Amino acid sequence: MPPLRASSLLALVLSALFVTGAPAATRTTSGIAPGLVHRGKTTTIVVRTAPTERGCTAILRYQDGTIQRSATKNPRKGRVSFVLRIPLKAPVGPGRWTVICAGTLRSGSFIVVGVASTQPVEAPKVVVSKQGFSQRNDKMGTGSQVSYGLLLQNTSDTEDAQNVYLIVNFVASDGELIGSKTRTIPLISAGQTFAVGDYMPLRTQVPTASLEITIRVGAHRPKQDVPAPQIANVKIVQSSYDPGWVGEVDGEVVNAVPNRTLASAQLSVVVLNAAGNPIGGGTGSVFSPVPSGARLVFLAQSGFTAIPLDQAASVVVSSQSSFLAP
């Protein structure tokens, strides 16, 4: 039998190394948890040795089979340690480390992960891009109705805004608040403009001079694809009992999401004038399941009666939807 070359001997040693071998303790630097190493960071391997052991070498073997070797070191006081830097292009996933001292093998495992960011992710900012309202006095009594519409824009392209808390204050010309309404929007996706339409019954007929808006983002997450229904064939409908005023907004909810059934949808509607500015809004809902590829009529009938019909030109509809698991 011909003698083994050095490369063949190393291959045999490594084959035995990653099948058997006694485990040894590892520790890492830079605050990395034991057994978890980051690309571009260092890891420290420490093993105990016998008094007679010399010429120790550490070897890292990554998930794709590539090998990283240390320089040879001699133990001191019954211990030997190696500091190795994980390559930036090391394959992510499990690997094995081994220390060889004069033919004695010690080994253990580690996991390579990507470089962790040390910078906190900035919370997305949600702003009011457009707003408007219409107010109408009650026919009987001393109160009034205010129908309002807001277009809220998430200015971040990378972060979804979650649990967006909204305060809408109705302000008189003297600065006094004559009404307030609050609402929480579960999600405004990165880069999305969300339509908020609603109404507020007031106990007074004092004219609302302006809206005062407060917005707080409760949480955020990296941008995710979120399924949503499409809105089609929308029309503004005159009130059947009060000519000259908007009674409702009707249309169709279309489920174009493949292999998912739309379980429900809360609809928020903003009515715009001919210049594209909000003049009011309202709400509607769909609770009947809509299979993929199907459509269903919706009738949004709440909040529009303070909007003059001759000023209503178009609408914007946003939804908070839920889908059944595929």
* Mean pLDDT metric: 87
- Percentage of residues in DSSP E strands: over 45%
CATH class of the largest domain: Mainly Beta
> How many helical elements?
1
End-to-end distance: 62 Å
**Sheet with the most strands?**
6 strands, mixed
- As a percent range, the share of helical residues equals under 10%
Radius of gyration: 33 Å
SSE string: HEEEEEEEEEEEEEEEEEEEEE
What is the CATH superfamily of the largest domain?
Answer: Macroglobulin (MG2) domain
Outline, from the CA principal axes? elongated
Which spans of ≥5 residues are poorly predicted at pLDDT below 50? 1-33
Q: What structural class do the secondary elements suggest?
A: mainly beta
Jot down its keywords.
326 residues, mainly beta, Immunoglobulin-like, 3 domains, six-stranded mixed beta sheet, three-stranded antiparallel beta sheet, 1 helix, 21 strands, disordered N terminus
Q: How would you characterize this protein structure?
A:
- The chain has one helix at 6-17; strands spanning 22-23, 26-28, 36-38, 42-48, 56-61, 67-69, 79-85, 93-101, 104-113, 126-137, 144-154, 159-171, 177-188, 193-202, 210-222, 230-238, 246-254, 262-272, 278-286, 295-300, 314-323.
- The model is unreliable at 1-33 (pLDDT under 50).
- The chain has three domains: 6-113, Immunoglobulin-like, CATH 2.60.40; 126-190 and 198-220, Immunoglobulins (Immunoglobulin-like, Sandwich), CATH 2.60.40.10; 230-323, Immunoglobulin-like.
- The strands form six sheets. Strands 1, 3, 5, 6, 8 and 9 form a six-stranded mixed sheet that branches. Strands 2-4-7 form a three-stranded antiparallel sheet, with no helix packed on it.
- Strand 10 (126-137) and strand 11 (144-154) form a beta hairpin.
- It is elongated.
- By secondary structure, it is mainly beta.
- The protein has one helix and 21 strands.
- 4% of the residues lie in helices and 54% in strands.
